[in-house]
Write a structure and sequence with these properties.
Residues 180-240 form the SAM domain. This protein is mainly α. It has helices at 2-6, 60-65, 70-85, 97-105, 118-127, 138-150, 154-157, 181-187, 194-199, 205-208, 213-218, 224-246; strands at 9-10, 19-21, 27-29, 36-37, 45-47, 67-69.
């Protein structure tokens, strides 16, 4: 994909189903039926109208405005990473395409598959930034993955550097550090569930960071939209707490 991007190609349909694997386990990108060439500038974008779009693999700006670029391919590449790490799960599971679109707009991102290294999931999240200009380039991604391949033990030590790509204009968003569960729920306009969390024994931010979607349902959050908003915020909180603990601070 680094090669294709450097050559000015936008694939538009990156997905595990379009990756061929030969006898030597070499993976090759295939199916260029939707691809286009950016002849003037490989860093630019083009606007498409009409036609079907693979919603679950497509960046939000491409869905909303038909704006495709190498950055939208980077978004799709991270979905492929998630497919591989989840051993072929369907992205967003049984959610409808419309629910996927709304969830992404609200800030929801796919959680880390079971057993997925934190470093790789942070890379996915960086590729899924809403602003396409803030996503890493394919050359950034390639350089980072090369480091992991050469030195797999760095999978842990590189956690704090997972989002430090040379050409990236911004680091991971600086999420506010909430003093209490009430403050956190207030910030995402879900304060009506304070008693639900406390009654279920979730009294610290660290305990909240371990919650899954099933835990959210179990404490009485029944509305799907509210479940999505809370679990998305928990993902952000989890990353923030991880960085804080790595730095030696206690919450």
């Amino acid at each position: 994909m680094t090669y294709l991007s450097d050559m000015g190609y936008v694939h538009r349909d990156l997905a595990a189903r379009n990756i061929l694997v030969d006898d030597n386990l070499v993976c090759k990108v295939s199916d260029f039926g939707m691809s286009r060439v950016l002849e003037d500038d490989s860093e630019s974008a083009y606007t498409a109208t009409g036609g079907k779009i693979p919603i679950r693999w497509t960046a939000p700006e491409a869905i909303a405005y038909g704006k495709f670029s190498s950055a939208s391919d980077v978004w799709s590449y991270a979905i492929v990473m998630w497919e591989v790490m989840s051993y072929g799960e369907r992205p967003y599971w049984e959610m409808s395409n419309q629910d996927v679109i709304l969830s992404i707009e609200e800030g929801y991102r796919l959680p880390a598959p079971i057993g997925c290294p934190v470093t790789l999931h942070q890379l996915m999240l960086h590729c899924w930034q809403k602003e396409y200009s803030q996503r890493p380039s394919f050359s950034n991604v390639l350089s980072f993955l090369d480091k992991l391949i050469i030195n797999p033990s760095s999978m842990i030590t590189l956690v704090n550097d997972a989002l430090s790509f040379p050409d990236s204009p911004e680091e991971m968003p600086d999420y506010p550090l909430f003093i209490s569960i009430g403050d956190w729920l207030d910030s995402i306009k879900m304060s009506q569930y304070k008693s639900n969390f406390l009654a279920a024994g979730y009294t610290t931010l660290d305990s909240i960071a371990t919650m899954s979607i099933e835990d959210i349902k179990r404490i009485g959050v029944c509305l799907i939209g509210h479940q999505r908003r809370i679990i998305s915020s928990i993902q952000s909180l989890r990353l923030q707490l991880h960085h804080i603990h790595q730095s030696g601070f206690q919450v």
